[in-house]
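Weekly structure sync, notes
Attendees: PL (lead), two postdocs, one rotation student
Agenda item 3: pending single-chain targets
PL asked that the sequence for the first pending target be pasted directly into the notes so everyone works from the same version. It is reproduced below exactly as submitted, 214 residues in total.
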Amino acid sequence: MSLRVGLIGYGTAGAFFHAPLITATPGMTLRSVVTSREVPDGVRRLDRPDQLWEDHDLVVIASPNRTHVPLATEAVLAGVPVVVDKPFAPSVAEARELTSLASSRDVPITIFQNRRWDGDFLTVKDLIRSGALGRVHRFESHFDRWRPTPKQTWKELPGREEAGGVLFDLGAHLIDQALQLFGPVRSVYAEVNKQRDGVQVDDDFFLALTHESG
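Predicted structure, written out during the meeting:
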């Protein structure tokens, strides 16, 4: 039996990442998308997220960051397993509250971290696990992006609840990869800056993670 999947949001993440992956995965069927945009043939377009709670086996949240926790909470309360695009939540407290709620109701919940499957990352992971590199003392990873003029999108909106800025956007991938490679973190040193004229959220950051593994 194929899992009936509902997708919330059909912007870049929904249309170019989630929908193709769901469609290409055996045992999954993209049944509905909550969006105001056109959707693929054979897929229902819905107006409200709550229309997914009754007849879907899984919901994927790919809407703006500020909606992740409220929508995931609704899905959990409705008893529907949910995948949340990164960032999972604007704060650690909200993330813990959400995962605690899901656990108490025995509803599966997880985060979408697609860059765990990048070829270069998997190669590094295999090399470290095999011992081919010996003991790793320092690991450096970064994204470089040329965007001199800020884009007028929700990712550029200020406010903690918006979870905007490059740290929440691309930084989530880098942090997750470091955790996958070296485990829990003991301490963090951070520099978070606004470099471009007119920008309202961080567009530059440096993080130094010290892992419990040393």
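Discussion points:
- The mean pLDDT is 95.
- The chain has two domains: 3-112, 115-211.
Action: rotation student to compare against the earlier draft before next sync.
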